[in-house]
Amino acid sequence: MGLYDKFARLAEERVQFQTSGLNPFGTCIDEIYSATEGRIGNQKIILAGTNNYLGLTFNAQAIADGQAALAAQGTGTTGSRMANGSYGSHLTLEQELSVFFDRPTAIVFSTGYTANLGIISTLADPSAVALIDADCHSSIYDGCALGGAQIIRFRHNDAQDLERRMVRLGERARGAIIIVEGIYSMLGDVAPLVEIVDIKRRLGGYLLVDEAHSFGVMGAKGRGLAEELGVEQDVDIVLGTFSKSLASIGGFAVGAEAMEVLRYRSRPYIFTASPSPSCIATVRSSLRIIAQHPELREKLWSNAHRLYQGLAKLGYELGPRISPVVPVMIGSKEGGLSLWRDLIAKGVYVNLVLPPAAPVDITLLRCSVNAAHSEEQIDAIIQAFAGLKN
Ligand code: PMP
What we know:
Helix content: 40-55%
Distance between the termini: 48 Å
CATH class of the largest domain: Alpha Beta
Number of domains: 2
Bound molecules: 4'-deoxy-4'-aminopyridoxal-5'-phosphate
Largest sheet: 7 strands, mixed
Low-confidence stretches: none
Strand content: 15-25%
Number of strands: 14
Order of helices and strands: HEEEHHHEHEHEHEHEHEEHHHEHEEEH
Shape: globular
Structural class: alpha/beta
CATH superfamily of the largest domain: Type I PLP-dependent aspartate aminotransferase-like (Major domain)
CATH topology of the largest domain: Aspartate Aminotransferase, domain 2
Oligomer: single chain
């Protein structure tokens, strides 16, 4: 048997995608002009399928700070923080995150994926039980799998199902690790954190919330869903990424002072290179911008309302709530693919999501808005969808 034989079906599917037109899973955006515009082939496009929620990828100050760090500290750290040492800016950023969240400890990781892997795999060891929302990101599943914990999935956003499963655990529920997300990346819905916190208060357990898509987007200060719902005190660890609102790359965890010890056990923290100085500098810039410019969040939500309402008026079936992530539900995989290609031909780039990446058996076009989109651009996205409605 050949090394790649077991991937024969996948390879066939890939060829099909490539030969029938533009490949949605290998799209090259040939040029990026701004946080909202780019070019694919000869087609100028509006970017409506990113995680750049506050539109900060082209912020002049963040670029200047990134460039200065690149010039002053070089292109990369070339090693892990444990083996090769942290740079001062890694530690400064950790301090700034800890102040931003008003929590004693922050740990910076190389990506959001490794932040989840690093924290979860270390806590969720073979003696632990992890209760995770069925729609949680792969990094959360992978963290539990790497740690070797018993994994119990509860139905997406179903607090009653979580409670039933906690009750079944009996005394073990007291030490269980519950993991949910703030905004879910595909449907744009949010975790029922108030109900979950109530369960935790009654039955015990520890709560980890991945605010990857809600950081910078929700809460008076932009700290995420837990802040918005007033339950931050009940969240033991907040996990997040630098690759969305913070417009860079890297990840973080914030929590109690005792969390510090995880650095010395967490394989995904120890055995990978630390973020480059320019990445850290741009994150620090973006964090300041988020703190100083709440109006960016207002603009983001105003754009989210505009897109959601515009597409709803056209009769498209959308996600359950207005959110910067606006999923358009499509009947079939083929229908989704052809709509995705037609949208590009009309100058709009969104994300095609097929099962299993999409929640159970749905094909969807994931649209997302950001604070840098103008109303005209939002209307152009709606217009493109209008032209494809039959
Ligand atoms: N958590 C969630 C909920 C995510 O959606 C993602 C990435 N899409 C990550 C973690 C991983 O973040 P990163 O891209 O920084 O690795």
